[in-house]
Batch of 2 targets.
Target 1
Amino acid sequence: MTTVLIVDDSRLARDMVGSVMSSLRPNWTILSAAGGEEALSKVDGVIPVVAIVDYNMPGMDGLTLSSKLKEQFPSLTIGILTANVQDALKKKAEALGCRFIPKPITSDKIREFLASAGQ
Amino acid sequence: MTHHDDRFTLDADEADAIAELFNIGMGQAAASLSEMIGEEVQLSVPSLTVSSRARIARDLDPEEAARVCAVRGAFSGPFTGEAMLIFPERGTLALVGRLVPVEPGTEAPGELEQDVLTEIGNIILNGCLASLSNLVESELAGALPGYSAGPPAELIGAADDPVLFVRIDVALASGDAQGQVLFLLDIASLDSFREAIRRAVANL
């Protein structure tokens, strides 16, 4: 079973990423969460192959969540989802080994991300 | 007129969609500002409420003490209203100081500082409106934003009529400039806004 983790505080954004993922990878299991804490509790006992994580979320932001996920799953490929592609953010994301997926979400961007993740 | 008229009720999905559109729009605008000043610009998650100008001003300045600088402009299209970038005077000087030298000891923004803030406001507000306009695939005409300064109540107004209020807090990473971007949307335009959101969601 291949699992993708989707974390975004916006239901719209989660649904959109989810629907693109299920059209691109119909056999994958989608695990979605509205925030960092929920995501961490949901991956207990599951090993996702990729994670798509919103940056700007209430409470834990996407980079903090990503560093926690990386501690738990060092080989996990994480895409940080944001319209706010600033150099400072880019550097922090790169330091964690994360990629960027610029919002708004499109099927092509997700496809490209999966290819770069070797999935 | 009550604030709980059906016309003003957004369901959870509509509210979520509006917040996400503003999140994307402001994200792109903040990236432009960050590039301009060479520093990280932090944004809060957008908050969305039905409020009134009187209440918004009160919430921003409960002590009625602060003088703020604002760059604001009206916009119209599938939704109409007013966009504002607001910084306290001190924060304005810190922000403007990233682009032009500000004399030490300056208390209030002078003509040059006002011009620079207006340009920053222009980039942020029009950048955000341009992204929104692209997302909903219809034109949003924006007036050129203008500068004003004073207590929030004077700038925002004291009307009790309901407005749909979107607020995003903006801060420089170094912590010396913290302000807000406010969008006050006319409730009368909510139906066309809903229609625009439906189109945006269908297109994404």
Target 2
Amino acid sequence: MKAPVSWITEHVDLPAGTTTEQLAARLTALGLKLEAVESPGDQITGPLVVGKVLSREPEPQKNGKTINWCAVDVGAANGTGEPQGIVCGAHNFDVGDLVVVVLPGAVLPGDFAISARKTYGHVSAGMICSAAELGLSGDHDGIIVLPPDAGAPGDDAFDVLGLHDDVIEFEINPDRAYALSVRGVAREAALAYAAEGATFRDPADRDVPAPTDDGHPVELHDTDGCPLFVARLVEGFDPAAPTPDWMVRRLTQVGQRSISLAVDVTNYVMFELGRPIHAYDADTLTGPVGVRRARAGERLTTLDGTERTLSEQDLVVVDESGPVGLGGVMGGEATEISAATTRVLVESAHWDPTSMFRTGKRHRISSEAGKRNERGVDPAITEAAADRVVELLTTYGGGSAGGVTVAGSVPDRAPITAAADLAARISGMDVDHATTVAHLEAVGCTVDDRGDGTLVVTPPSWRPDVTDPHDLVEEVARVVGYETVPSVLPTPDAGRGLTRDQQLRRRVGRTLAGAGCVEVVSFPFVGDATFDQLGLPADDERRRTVRLANPISSEEPGYATTLLPGLVKAAARNLGRGAPGVALFETGTVAFPADAGPAPIYGVDRRPTPEELTALLTAVPRQPLHLGAVLAGEQERPGWWGPARAAAWSDAVALVHRLADELGVPLEVRSDVRAPWHPGRCAAFVLAGPAGRVVGHAGELHPRACRATGLPERSAALELDLDALLAAVPATAPAPVFSSFPLAKEDVALVVDAGTTTAEVEAALRDGAGELLESIRLFDVYTGEQVGAGSRSLAFALRFRAPDRTLTEQETGAARDAAVAVAAERCGAVQR
Amino acid sequence: MSGPNTDYDPVEVDALKPEEVEAARDAALAAIAQAADLADLKQVRTAHTGDRSPLALANREIGALPPQARKEAGQRVGQARGAVGKALAERQVVLEAEHEERMLVEETVDVTLPTDRLPRGARHPLTTGAEHIADIFVAMGWEVAEGPVIEAEWLNFDALNLGPDHPARTMQDTFWTDPEDHGLVLRTHTSPVQARTMLTRTPPIYVVCPGRVFRTDEYDATHSPVFHQVEGLAIDEGISMAHLKGTLDHFAAAMFGEGISTRFRPSFFPFTEPSAEVDLVCFVCRGAQVVTTADGVETCRTCRGEGWIEWGGCGVVNPRVLTACGVDSERYSGFAFGMGIDRTLMFRHGIEDMRELFEGDVRFTTAFGTEL
């Protein structure tokens, strides 16, 4: 909402010397937030005067343009009284017109200094100005042509153009619809300066005529949707009458283009009083106008030329021909004011905000009228607003006021009963009973003090938002001043601290960062192309996403089911920017469709029952927390120690092991085939124990996936279900029991089939070695002639120790032989 | 070597003559003194104390003497050998020390060589920032609550007094899941976590809810369709706006430094009444609006000369929200607040472009280390 200071102060006397900044600051403190102040004249200095064009000689130029060599009377402003010679490139003026002239020595916006200069063969002593050159908004290309009565040559043009008039732009919250009018802003200004004695003069406070017999008939069929409809006739209107200059200027100041007198007047009154008004060409209406809900299939072409199919929930204004307007939202094309309109029917009606909101949303109409009607307009000024329109139309458009119709009435307002000390208790401010009552009255409430500690408060008609006791608290608090709220730290009981999961997640991040990985935060949106790049099979469950109805990009309509796409993109971006290698990780939620049907929408007058709550929560998709990492390019830098080392499958696998060790979760590894990993270089991680759940994968990315995503070959990746992994973290770590008796070492080399994994052989050895085995570790892998094609030799270091004695060679040897025997049995291992 | 002889005259055995023993001792001592390094000394040790050394040979002759002569000869040889042994040990210590000195000099390296074989890792400032905020509140006895990002419409809107026809719904441009009438959204704020908390716990409640939220905003230097919020909720008996102010003042000081406080401006949020915008005293100019630099006095860039920085929204929980979430609004009142973590980090750390948070450039993230 833009409000010129001159318009505000028409309705409130502020203390002398009040600056625009002070006014804006006080209004901001009351809840009308300052967005910007436009001070159009601030950037102009020097002589800017009214000029009268005495002569205008068009002179075609070689470059194809035609310039006008003009003599302009600027009175005594140039010191000589002689006409000023000025070159002007615009053509929208004639001899005798009043124009705006800037003289040498002046400075225009953008530090544009004006001097007499030679151009097109003349000395141009100044410039005839356009709105744009003066920093004024305007949709006119040419220069400003002033009305004939604007002033005399040589007059200061600052006042003529309103350049001294600041315009304050406010950001108005949805609850303060009344402030979408100069009336509302002026009322708040009076409140802001109440202590200094400022008083508000209500522009809607006017005597309105009683209904007459010759009014246009009105029939209200839906008094919930439209409880009050005022129709006023203006007869003998001159459709060619111009809009007065002052009105055009104010409309321009508030950002509204001038269209025609009739339209401008309705807009002007809307900005002045906040009540949207519609004007019909009365001669295009047939029979009484009525208000009802639209019927299925009814159509209406609105002012914007769009033919709309109406819904049975839309409120429409009708005549005998059918709908002639979307009530309160937009008028119809067939009945709008035209250049031939001489009889105007002025509609000022009060509309149900919810209906307005729904109709605006349904038909995607966003208008100044709709914005006010859907937030709530003061119903008490419906007649006054119509009267103000009639006054302006008859004053500037000729004609006379005709019949008056008032259908319906101002809806009743329910009072609010509230504890008198509620404002003090909830605001925490030092505000006593008398102050509470006084402030409620200051904002327009009628207060019935019952004397028993309760107040029965009737809010003012312009405050439809004030419905609850807490609304009254805010009114009192903002008048007292939010800056007086004391600062008191609450002292809750001892809390439980971070949950174990929250602590573990921090540990996960620190572990990966400690291992050299850098965390990223990606957008969680994916599409088919993403999955195609990674080579996910058509039936892969990760392709079934929770889809968005209105995604940012139609290419990525799904919520992520895997973190790898975002990681891969970030890795490629880093490499593209010159990084020799990256190790990135991300923790984030992924989502899988719940397939549970729509999530229910309940009422809000009570808590949902436990069953209702369960139904609600199960309709929400499952969203596990995942951990992903992508390692690409150089992982160890080159240096005096040796060459660089690029990412390999084992880097990703090692990260998982490091994390599992850190968390104390035993994980088993087995080879697996899963996109986007290399089918021969993909490890699955399984939680130990009977459940045996796979919690994730790691390994080298498939070469095709690397090529498709722009990563170097051999890039590696991992993705884990972090929720599942963290759930397996033991609550407490039991202290280990270890022996201080001597260690016995046995190394064995076993030849196995190349397809047999180390984990399988190790598990067999472990099982066979029995309780004396303290540790086992693979220390060498050999392939070559000595073991033959298709086989490899795995060398393990077995370490034995007993809790209570020094082991004999016989005992150790027997344990080793038992281990090898099980490996031979299960894996076909042959000891070398 | 002579055989046993019961009346043998020791002076007749050459090797045991005093002058022979002394000569052997002196030769040994001289050799020891001359040994230049440990290898030399090892040779000297072999030559003068080994099995074939004169003193060892002399020692063996003692057994051949008649008993009455053995004592004197034994003493003479023993003293000589003792002197040699002592000299050897002393020389050994000296030479070892010299050797070590030399070795240390020889092993000198260029300690300025780079050792950054492994690149450094880092955690994202959005993560560590959220943790930092959580820690501030946990220290006050609050807890950290979390919830899903794809959320039931009822929890994201209706339960928070944002009914289907509330104009404020259009203030939050919402991502809906397909089909749109399935009642699921990408949460537009972390407030549904507050609703979930109230629905599943009994007061008193003191929780902060950090998390990722979504709005269909443009993606530019100051907006992102994906961003992060932290909200707080306190429900207890006797809670007022004063407690809200106290909490936010504490939060501001903990986050931005001692003496940094907040101010309230009236505002509107459906879930709170009264509602306020919360501004922060600019932590750079500390409200002065200008800063003094080497070039003179300049308008503070952090707050753009306002002296205050817009930080977030807050208010007293609307009793309608308490009712929908099953909290007795007669007995309890509460306050809630919310601010952007991204925005908070942007002005706290001077991040010029919000997109840097989401691009994953390691040069950006690494600058923030692993704790904020």
